[in-house]
Amino acid sequence: MWMFRSTVMSTSPRRRSLDRERVRETGRWLVRYSPDRCSALIGLALLTADWADDDIELIRIIGLLSGNFAPLAADALKRRLGGTSALLWLAQRVAGWGRVYLVEALCAAGSSGARSWLLRQACDGDYLNGYFAGKIATAAHLHEAIIAPDADDELIDHTGRLLRIMADCSGMGMTWEGYPPVRIVLEAYVGHLAGQAPNLKRYLDAARIADHLAQASPDRLSMTPDHRECLVDRYLAVLRRAEWSEAAQAGFDPDNDFFAWFTQTVGKRLGLPVFIESVAE
Description:
- The chain is mainly alpha-helical.
- It has 2 domains: about 15-110; about 110-280.
- The chain is about 70% helix and about 0% strand.
- It contains 17 helices and no strands.
- Helix 5 runs antiparallel to helix 6 (about 85-90).
- It is elongated and about 70 Å long.
- The protein starts with a helix and ends with a helix.
């Protein structure tokens, strides 16, 4: 290592410039023309070591093959001044592990241009969302966005998804206990929820949030037991409304394994009307 560093330090600026161009040319050729994945990965790794904006388009395209190339593509784009918009473009189009690396890169970049998407669309329902839900809440300043009186439905629904994911992602990512503004977000979310039109997804997210809240240790959420009970009651007041029960009943499928689990656990613990009837039957 010492010999390598000495060689680099003794190389003239002109020579280093020539070497950099040679590395970039090799990387581009391998990404464009490699007959196998391993060679293309080497090419992308060579481009990742550089910072030229004119390689963004090539990196963005190879990044669409996110199962193999997303980690390096995310690193490469983070190093470039114009890379944030390309990170967002990619994150909007990939799923699975590729989405994890790209969303985490967007959170680390702290770009205001990506904030709206992070707050409204980043979680696509994959269980891998648990790796980055807490990072989104922190990096995108969720607690500031959700307290706005004019928060839109897309923001409110995605907030519910983030809270539900963070309630059950221990061992993957940040949980409620590790997120200091959780009380603020829980209160603001249920306030907005009360003014929304009911549907099944909103009902299920809110119920799972209320169930976790009812079982959580209040002191670990920076609230008193009385405050916690009051907050649970606010969620239950919405869920027990006739129109919300009707929305849940309309989408209820007794043959679906998820609904069977939900009925015997969350619905039963919270005493939700529609699920009490299902258990009784």
